[in-house]
Amino acid sequence: MTDRTAFAQEATPSETRADRRRLVESVRAHRRLLAERGPFEVADRRRLNREARERDRVEARHGKELQRVHEKRVKRERSLTSSLNGLDGKRESQERNALAVLRRESVEQALRSTRLDAGQVNGIGNGLVRDLAAQGIRTAADFRRVSWGKAPNGKGGEVLYIHRTQGRKVHINGIGEHRGRPLAEWQRQALARAQARAPQELPADQRHRIAEIIEEERVRLQAELAEAPRAAEAARAEAARRYEEEAERLAAAEREAAEEAVRRRAGFDTMAEELLALQAELAAHVDRFGDLGLRDRRARSRALRPLPAVPVIPAPRTPEPSPRPAVDLAKQAGAPGVPGAPGVRPGLGWLVPMVFFGLTAVLGPGDDAAAPLWLSISARLASLAVLAELLRLWIPRRRWRTAGPLPAGTGQLAGAVFLALFSASMFADPEHAAGGAPWALAVVSVLLLLAGTTRRAGSGRPGETSD
């Protein structure tokens, strides 16, 4: 390295100024580069906040997906359990339907075999039998009833019509009231005999076949019920796999960004050290060669300013994927102290009573113009209170993080208030006040209130859910 003392003895004033200028320009260049550190730190802080928000969104999506899986499993198990419980009633219904079909076929067969012959009906001989056969009426199964109506040509007053089983009604000349009534009575007696002779119970083979069908359906439903937890577990595993992949992708991107930030920060630190060294060299140059004029003093004062303060930011970190464990909400439902089936959100059907109470709070009960002032005010206040309570219970339970069924008895209490408002409006109406309907509604309202209050009081016990 060149000896500064020798350089001071040999350097000319122009060389000294050039050396001073070089040092000042180097300091300025380093300061300009270091000025980018502040915006970099702000951008890096924003990056960290953005990554944290993205992780929260991924976790929220994962939680909602687990929530949907749990709700689907609970609804599926409830549906299958309800179908299993209804199989006995379904078997009885199928047996009744099969017996009804068997009886109907037996009756139809008996009626088709009961032919209309001359002499069976009072006043109907071979000629009328031929006329009836020409119109398709040969057996007791070919017509249903007789009735009076206007003559086909519109003249001659009313005539007797025979309503065929297949086709329109017909009129047979010569068959009036004296022959039509016995004909209808003959058909009725044939029907009564056919019904009396029809089977009263199913044959054993048909009952056995229905029992086999029901048992096959029971086995299928039980298999689907046993498969529901496995399907839900597979769906949760798939959701966990997607979450881990997404978390790993985010973690890899965060690690890469953090490593780049570390490199940039190390570069700024090195540049700051070089700037301090240049400033020290410039100060030593001034000590050796003194002041070089006004422009030199101005440039030197700007170059020797203190370094800007570095913004304080969180320490850079290298995140690792930390997937949430897939919590089996269905298992929690059976744990002691956990009421009902947690995580099952109340349905959108609750919007109907909330809309009703909201309209009542705004418009009043029924015909608000004819209602007394005390009823109008009381109904509005009661509707507003019920609406606020329903919203307080319903809104948090619709969110996936705080999902859960409404407290037991909520439906009875809402129904009690509804019937109470309706009953009060009927009491205020002179047209209905004297009847028994308002009192009946009032009694039902009180019973619902007592039932809802009792269920609400016991809703803290395990297994109690909203209706």
Low-confidence stretches: 1-8, 315-342
Please compute the radius of gyration using only Cα atoms.
47 Å
Major beta sheet summary: 3 strands, antiparallel
What count of structural domains?
3
Shape: elongated
Strands of the largest sheet, in order across it? 1-2-3
What portion of the residues fall into strands of 2 or more residues? under 5%
Task: Work out the helix count.
Answer: 14
Number of strands: 3
Class from secondary-structure proportions? mainly alpha
Helix content: 55-70%
State the end-to-end CA separation: 92 Å
Name the helix and strand elements from N-terminus to C-terminus, one letter apiece.
HHHHHEEEHHHHHHHHH
Rounded average pLDDT = 79
Describe the structure.
The protein is mainly α. The protein folds into three domains: 25-88 and 206-303; 108-197, no CATH class; 338-457, no CATH class. The protein is built from 14 helices and three strands. The chain has helices at residues 4-10, 13-34, 37-85, 87-113, 126-134, 177-197, 204-289, 294-303, 329-333, 351-363, 373-398, 410-428, 430-433, 437-457, and strands at 143-150, 158-164, 169-170. A three-stranded antiparallel sheet has the order 1-2-3, with helices on one face. Residues 1-8 and 315-342 have low confidence and may be disordered.
